[in-house]
Please model this.
Amino acid sequence: MTETEQPPPLAAHAVGVPTRRLDGPAKVSGTAPYAWEHRLPEPVYVHAVQAGIARGRIVRVDTAAAEAVDGVLTVLSHRTAPRLADTSDHELAILQGPEVGFRGQIVGAVLAETPEAARYAASLVRFAYEEEPHHTELRDDSPDTYTPAKVNPSFPSDTEQGDPEAALKEAACTIDATYRTPMQFNNPMEPHTTVAIWEEGDPEDPSASPLLTLYDSTQGSHTVRTTLAPVLGLGAERVRVISPHVGGGFGSKGMPHAHDVLACLAAKVLRGRPAKLALTRQQLFSLAGHRTPTVQRVRLGAEPGGQLTAISHEVLEHTSRVKEFAEQSAVATRMMYASPNRRTSHRLAALDVPVPSWMRAPGETPGMYAAEVAMDELAEALGLDPIELRKRNDPTQEPETGKPWSSRHLVECLTTGARRFGWDQRTAPGARREGEWLVGLGVASSTYPGYAMPGSEVEIVHRGSSRYTVRIGAADLGTGTWTVLSQIAADGLGVAAEDVRMEIGDTAYPMATVAGGSSGVSSWGSSLLNAVRAFRDQYGDEPEAGARVRAGYPENPARERYAVHSFGAHFAEARVNAVTGEVRVPRMLGVFSAGRIINPLLARSQFIGGMTMGLSMALHEEGVFDHTTGHVVNQDLADYHVPVCADIGDIEAAWLDEEDFVSNPMGSRGIGEIGIVGSPSAVVNAVYNATGIRVRELPLTPDKLLGE
Amino acid sequence: MDAHVTLRVDGEERSLTVDTRTSLLDALRDRLGVTSPKKGCDHGQCGSCTVLLDGRRVVSCLALTVSHDGAEVTTAAGLPGPDGRLHPLQQAFWDHDAFQCGYCTPGQICSAAGMLEEADAGRPSHATADLDPAARTPLTDDEIRERMSGNICRCGAYVNIVAAIREVGDVSEVTER
Ligand code: FES
Ligand code: FES
Model:
């Protein structure tokens, strides 16, 4: 392996500049088109009908009343819907048979000339069911739990080093606590939307197959295409997915869900008229994925000086009987702190629930919540400052693999943050009271892997006079892709960012991997710079107008030799009302080590947005499941609480000045998820410091503080 | 049942025939092709659909079109001046990066425009200590946060939203003096 195989580091000019969003003027005017908003002639409105039972089969369908509604074109059910070519994915294989796998599953749809007619008629479709007993509740003693073959995306379910049981027995100080997190829902502000147009091939030419165009709210146009094409029995080249602007996703738009298939089935029936389908806010709670509830037992053993001798993290979660998703909650525990003895495990209960999926930092978010509260408990038990405890257990290499870190600056994040936040003002638990308010400070660590995915391609076209068009099917779901890729392209090509025209969000452009796992910019940017190299190799420094090149993801051999992770430290101030139990968080600070920051203005927003979602997880979010009927009862934004402006005080993000050229030639690592990881623990630890009450079950609502 | 209504949308007279069940939001988005106001919940719970209706902020998903025949509707697309220059609030949202995905943003901006008028008119909020309209409470961050709490931003841009509105609120106070 020679050093020249490593992509050369990018010299930064446009990179590092706090450029405002290129899509800013369109976004503040509301004219940037989201999936629903592309102007199309003669649209037909599709409204999904959902199963009213949690498990069983449909024995009768009555669509007469719905069909009689003025403006209704047709009603789809498993009896009338077109057949799918591949039904192996049971989340996607809707309307193919009478079985019901969870309450809220799509069992029908109304297609009508107006949204009002479609929605009203959908309420008139009647199903009779043969109901079977259902199980939806995840319990500590849930029967029939199993060990998944792997956890998301491809980690082993269980790991063990040394002898954790023996080490726990011998440890001078131990913590053994169980932490619980509830079902949570991504709830991007733009409900999941698909508009589908199915044009039959040329009747003159029997070999021409149909052409399907989707306007979709997705984190990966190409992912939607490659997933849906075989389900629909189409060649991938016959499917085009367009998605220039996406109204948030946080993982829930990382893959197509059942509604995508429904829009395609409707479009097939409509033969050329656009089928418009937007899920309602309520429907998102059963059809757009969610974060599993978790029960996590964390045991820590330590020497009197704080050195960890044993770490055990055992996770119990649910999945859906319809399709497995195994959240990797204990995976961060495998690399976070040094300890000679360690165990992690994941068990699943397969229930009659909607299909869980990605929600911002799946795995790290719930797992680090439990682990970082446990570390706070250990610090308390040892009489050590929680920052000092983390310093004493900072590993010099990745614990399970022994690989060197590409960059690990957790301790620097902690100490920088402590200085900026005024950590020395922290008192003993329950010792600081201002009138009715108990005040405390909390800290927690954060981490997220520095992923990059192979597979993306970029096309560069020279338009003349050193102006370029750069094309890749990448997504911008608020992540800043439009802007950040133009900065990277500008520096690669040695031109100003204004001279680069980005074209993204369309399968008409080269393949882009999904905007997930905070891997987008690392993956796409690496490919982009590889394309620049190919362009220069082919055309030199003075290319003709029209010169074009296409190239893919470069080899990056160093990545194999190093452990690539980002780190961070979260600080929170909590004020707890001693009379009402109300919790306010006036201040949060996150200090991150995430490689080179490509756009400081947009990066700060990503970090702060993640921390806001972490605060939300700590204090607000809880899907309340009714196990009698088998559905989430608080399925809207009035009852499923997310923070509003008045809930958010002063949240600040800072970062260390660094570059990580092992990660990629930009020197960056992903930043979309690290902001949420650990931030709920900082809040919970601050509430403990304020009150002396340790809450282990989220969300931290006032009742949990008043009961004590 | 259908009804005929006329609206002035972003300065332009628009006539349309709608199902009497049609919300103002759907009339704008699906009948008139004015997609600046967004649908986040359709239940008055998120604020994405906020427009200025005869100068006051409303959630257009809870307004029935037929109840507003003859009304003047301003969306975020209608806020820039005739020369295309962004409204000061739009400029401040852009400068402060007060959004990420942008889906809540047109609603946030219409809401902020309506809110600044309300505050100027001396209308109190839950955060107002002195309820006397003559007291002219300053537009503190707490006032902004309270008054903007009908608009959810799931991307979590609140910190920057407050900064953007604070900047515009400060300027409008200065120009008044
Ligand atoms: S769409 Fe009107 S308030 Fe949410
Ligand atoms: S910017 Fe995405 S919801 Fe506010």
